[in-house]
Design goal:
This protein is of the alpha+beta class and 182 residues long. 38% of the residues lie in helices and 20% in strands. It starts with a helix and ends with a strand.
Length: 182
C-alpha cells in the first residue's frame, strides 16, 4: 500500500510539472503567433533558431543519417540532447542503442513499420560505438532495445535505466562517407 501511495504521489507531481510546462509552452506559442500576425513582411519574421534559443530549447538538432536501406538514424550530441532524443523524439517502437558501460551518444533507429533488418542494426550499433568513449577499441558492446524499455534514471539528463536489451559486439565505424547524412 505504501509503495502504491508513493507511486501515486510521484505521478501527481509529474502531472503538475507537465501541466505547468504545457501552460508555459501555450503562452509562448500565443506570443509567437501574435508576433507572426503583426509582421508586415518577411524581414520582421523571427528566424527558426531565434525562437528556439529564446525558449531555452536545443539549438542544434541531433545528427541524422540514413542507413543503407533508408531508415532514419538519429544520434544525440550531448547529455541533454540524448535525453531529449530518447524521451521526446523517439517513439515507443523505435530501436534505441548505446555503447555498453561507457559514456556516449544515444542512437535511435526509426523503425515504425518493423522493417529494420540485421544490417540496419549493425550499422546503427557501429554508429553508437563510434560516438562513444570506446571509439578507440577494436570491438565495442552495444545495448539494443526498443525505446519503450528505456526509463530515465537519477543523476541528470542522459542517464537511463534499461529494463532489458540485447547486446551486439561491433567495431566502431565513422558514418561520414559511409551513411548518407540527412
Amino acid at each position: 500500500m505504501f509503495d502504491k501511495a508513493r507511486r501515486v504521489e510521484r505521478a501527481r507531481q509529474q502531472i503538475d510539472l507537465r501541466r505547468r510546462e504545457t501552460r508555459l509552452a501555450q503562452v509562448e506559442a500565443r506570443e509567437a503567433e501574435a508576433r507572426l500576425l503583426e509582421a508586415r513582411d518577411a524581414r520582421e519574421l523571427p528566424g527558426p533558431r531565434e525562437d528556439a534559443g529564446r525558449r531555452g530549447e536545443l539549438a542544434a538538432a541531433p545528427r541524422h543519417y540514413l542507413t543503407a536501406r533508408g531508415l532514419s538514424l538519429l544520434v544525440g550530441r550531448n547529455a541533454r540532447e540524448n535525453h531529449h532524443l530518447t524521451f521526446r523524439v523517439a517513439r515507443a517502437e523505435d530501436l534505441w542503442l548505446h555503447a555498453r558501460d561507457v559514456p556516449g551518444s544515444h542512437v535511435v533507429l526509426r523503425d515504425g513499420e518493423g522493417r529494420a533488418g540485421a544490417d540496419d542494426l549493425r550499422e546503427a550499433a557501429e554508429v553508437a560505438a563510434f560516438f562513444s568513449e570506446a571509439r578507440g577499441e577494436a570491438m565495442v558492446d552495444v545495448h539494443v532495445t526498443r525505446r519503450k524499455h528505456v526509463r530515465p534514471a537519477r543523476g541528470g539528463p542522459g542517464r537511463v535505466f534499461v529494463a532489458h536489451s540485447d547486446t551486439l559486439r561491433v567495431p566502431p565505424r565513422d558514418p561520414e562517407g559511409r551513411l548518407r547524412k540527412r
